[in-house]
Automatic annotation (TrEMBL):
This is Alpha/beta hydrolase. Residues 25-270 form the AB hydrolase-1 domain. It holds the Pfam family Abhydrolase_6. It comes from Nocardia pulmonis. One of its GO terms (molecular function) is hydrolase activity.
Amino acid sequence: MTETRLVELSAGPIEYLDSGDGPPLVFLHGAMKDAEVWREVVARLDGAYRCIRPTMPLGAHRLPMHPDADLSVAGLAALVGEFLDALEVSDVTLIQNHWGAAQIMLADGHGDRLGRLVLSACEAFDNYPPGVPARLFARAARLPGLLTALGTALRGSRFRRRYAAGDATVAHPLPADLADRWLLRFTDPAIRRDLAKVLRATYSPADKARWAAAAEHFTGPVLVVWASQDRLMPRDHGPRLAASFPRAELVEVEDSGTCIPLDRPEEFATAVLRFLKNGAFRRTVDPPPM
């Protein structure tokens, strides 16, 4: 049974889905999506694990954050750490897609509760925000009135269908119920304000280098899952990311965009289950040549 719960954090209220019993798995979604992005994956996992799926303030959340909340990626990573503290979970397997929370948490001292990582088609190295589509959207978000105009247009079902059809994170059409759920939330001005903070934040090369360097100090097992048709994450970042951790394995998924939990949920769940049952990993990906 899945329960919808709420926790009050310093930045604002965070809703999360909680199901199953056993070792905790915490799932993080990407921009303009919510916890339901993981529904097909969790359906294959939560008999043996406690699956915790927070909806982060990334543009498809229901409850807005406080006006002064720090919603840069570093602020969001700190919020994930605060969320884990509030739930008092430890030895967590953090499973992320699209954004690079785990690397930032490790670099900024928020990784004490993390035991294992599953990094799927996510920001890494210099790729913040990820890919040309996300960088163009981030630039557009700085134009006065653009997000407001988009939010107004998304009230119309025909425009929502067209917008969802152009989603750069998937290789296959978004389920209609999820597209409506996510895009209709963006019509709320307070939700747009939150996403604008995410999009308008900037990061220096030194920030990105520091986040990347944190990988070598994480001693837990890591699974990197990368997609063959990803338009946002460079293909070579998968092997490179796996090679940056001492104990990592790489799995590449065909016929999928960034959002592997939607495009290929069965393959994703199979890879995660095998990873969780396999115990310790040796280094399986050699570092790239200097």
